[in-house]
Amino acid sequence: MNVLVTGGAGYIGSHTCVELIEAGYQPIVIDNLCNSSAKSLQRVQQITGGQIPFYQGDVRDEALLNRIFDENTIGCAIHFAGLKAVGESVEKPLEYYENNLCATMTLCRVMAKRGVKKLIFSSSATVYSGDNEMPLRETSKTGNCTNPYGWTKYMGEQILRDIAKADPAWSVVNLRYFNPVGAHESGLIGEHPNGIPNNLMPYISQTAIGKRDHLNVFGNDYPTPDGTGVRDYIHVVDLAKGHVAAIEYLMQHTGEGVFNLGTGHGYSVLDMVHAFESVNGVKVPYVIAPRRAGDLPTCYADPGKSREVLGWTAGRDQNDMCRDTWNWQSKNPNGYDD
Ligand code: NAD
Ligand code: UD1
């Protein structure tokens, strides 16, 4: 079955293409490369021995989507394409709403017209309200997002939920990712943020390789075991496999399903720093800095529903995450520019 993968050249999309091919699916990618390189897809082909038809362009370009559907028989779609930088979304809200929501709506319109009504959406744990008890379940309260990026995910889910309610032929799966980290074990694909990384793991690995002087640990006075923020880090290959499991669910159900993709384990910032140092034999100098606005003390998933309904669990542990991040970083210090 052909799977349309929007944003397939990106970090999570490229890893998912590997798992799709390995599970016998054929990814067809559309990406405008605004935050990625087409080299990632060449590397996916190198890893898998498969071929990936690639359309460079914007998901909001309805004519291009129509051409893709004319030229390929699509069975379902995975919609990764979107802008994802939290801070930038606060500065450029219109760009975020325009890109993330219009892409989702254009894609759904074309899919409906073509009678392909099976869609997986990249949502985020950021849709959960900050006042929930841990662990977060799919039934936990959502909303009260602290930035436009978070709202685009919240609204994106809602759009799909409403579409599935209005037309029972639709099957949509909203996947709420926790904190994706790591890279494919080959070291051929991984995450390469532009500029100064916002997220912890790329910052740790860029510090270890000497690109950054030290890591700022944002707060050590949280109500957590060591005072630093606790998150549910999930290996990107496990996350990618979660999409394959979701396709199987999508093909057998209609309506809307929502699933957490997390491990259920919370690790603190210092846990991650110390694991990274000991697994890789490197130093990660750090200083304690003030808290970052908008951060929660603790955030982790209850992955029980994904385990029971999708038959999916994350098999990779913290050591795997640290080792594979470093393998990618040290082999590709400048990402795909090398
Ligand atoms: P990424 O930036 O590496 O991948 C997104 C891809 O979409 C990029 O290749 C980009 O060029 C492309 N893109 C963006 N807008 C587009 C458009 N209008 N048309 C065509 N292509 C477009 O990000 P990622 O980390 O792989 O994230 C994938 C998805 O998962 C995003 O929707 C993101 O919001 C969501 N998500 C990511 C995380 C995370 O921590 N990485 C967490 C939760 C949710
Ligand atoms: C952040 C976003 C979230 C988004 C997710 C994508 C915010 C407030 N939240 O989540 O909306 O969905 O990225 O992956 O931006 N940390 C440091 N030093 C650093 C970087 C991070 O100490 O240089 C700490 C943070 O305070 C946090 C933990 O590391 O406790 C994880 O941070 P990060 O990787 O940015 O992820 P989230 O904040 O969970």
Largest sheet: 7 strands, parallel
The proportion of residues in beta strands is 15-25%
Mass-distribution shape: globular
Terminal Cα span: 34 Å
**Unreliable runs:** none
Bound molecules: nicotinamide-adenine-dinucleotide, uridine-diphosphate-N-acetylglucosamine
Strand order, largest beta sheet = 3-2-1-4-5-6-11
State the helical fraction: 40-55%
- Tell how many strands the DSSP assignment holds: 14
What is the helix/strand order?
A: EHEHEHEHHEHEEHEEEHEEHEEHH
Mean pLDDT: 97
Tell me the structural class.
alpha/beta
Global Rg: 19 Å
The helix tally amounts to 11
Verbal overview:
- With 338 residues, the protein is α/β, with parallel strands linked by helices.
- It has 11 helices and 14 strands.
- It has helices at 11-22, 39-48, 62-71, 86-91, 93-114, 148-166, 200-208, 236-252, 269-280, 304-310, 318-331; strands spanning 2-6, 26-31, 54-56, 74-79, 118-124, 171-177, 179-181, 215-218, 230-231, 233-235, 255-261, 267-268, 286-289, 298-299.
- It has a 7-stranded parallel sheet, sandwiched between helices.
- The chain binds nicotinamide-adenine-dinucleotide (NAD) and uridine-diphosphate-N-acetylglucosamine.
- Uridine-diphosphate-N-acetylglucosamine is lined by residues 86, 124, 126, 150, 179, 198-200, 203, 215-218, 229, 231, 269, 292, 294-295, 299.
Outline the fold blueprint.
Blueprint: E1 2-6, H1 11-22, E2 26-31, H2 39-48, E3 54-56, H3 62-71, E4 74-79, H4 86-91, H5 93-114, E5 118-124, H6 148-166, E6 171-177, E7 179-181, H7 200-208, E8 215-218, E9 230-231, E10 233-235, H8 236-252, E11 255-261, E12 267-268, H9 269-280, E13 286-289, E14 298-299, H10 304-310, H11 318-331
Parallel strand pairs: 1-2, 1-4, 2-3, 4-5, 5-6, 6-11, 7-10, 8-13, 9-14
Antiparallel strand pairs: 9-12
Helix pairs in contact: 1-2, 1-8, 3-5, 5-6, 7-9, 7-11, 9-11
